[in-house]
Amino acid sequence: MSLLEKKLTKKWAQELINEDSRLILAIIHDLQEKGKAIADELGIKDYDSIEVLFMEHEAGKDPFDKLEGQADREENVLILKNCPMTKLLGEVAVDGKLPDFYQRIVDKYKEIYKTKGAILHPFCIVHQVIRSIVGDHIKVGGKNLKVYQIACRSMASGKIVYATEGMNRVDMTQDEIDKKIAGKACMYLIKS
Questions:
Q1: Strand partners, 87
Q2: 10 Å Cβ neighbour count for 164?
Q3: How far apart are CA 159 and CA 150, in angstroms?
Q4: Of 70, 79, 133, 142, which has fewest CB within 10 angstroms of its CB?
Q5: Is 189:147 a contact under the CB 8 Å cutoff?
Q6: C-alpha distances in angstroms, 39 versus 18, 27, 43, 99, 102?
Q7: Nearest one of 26, 60, 61 to 45, comparing CA atoms
Q8: Which one-letter DSSP state was computed for residue 102?
């Protein structure tokens, strides 16, 4: 069997040429690109230390506050008080529900980004991509800041989804995360 026959399989062809799958991948790409474009609009600067960044956070003036609103802070873990996508979600909902297609976008994203998948709806993709890009562009003591999503909670239903990559970086059980995020929107870790 030739290399092409081994690599170009029926499964590959069905996935590649499936309009639904290709459309979902294109939508995920567009959501990520929108996140990058929005992140470029923030005035991101460097910080001498993580403590200086946290002082700006406490004053509501760090790039994350500007981007998404206020968050509680427990050491390096931020817990966003409200979802900045709530208004948009209400505007695109039909009879109080998101279109079924939105869930297929979420499912595909989680399939591709298995450990980062604290995604409840497609707009979480935009939000979390922006947040990661903001972190990547902030230097603290000369090093890029890293952002790890831990969990995301639906403001409407209370459903919580988790990102294993972020969960594995904090010393908290899932029950502890659930208690801390109760009544709030999402939880993430920032590290320099």
A1: none
A2: 13
A3: 14
A4: 142
A5: yes
A6: 32, 18, 9, 27, 23
A7: 61
A8: H
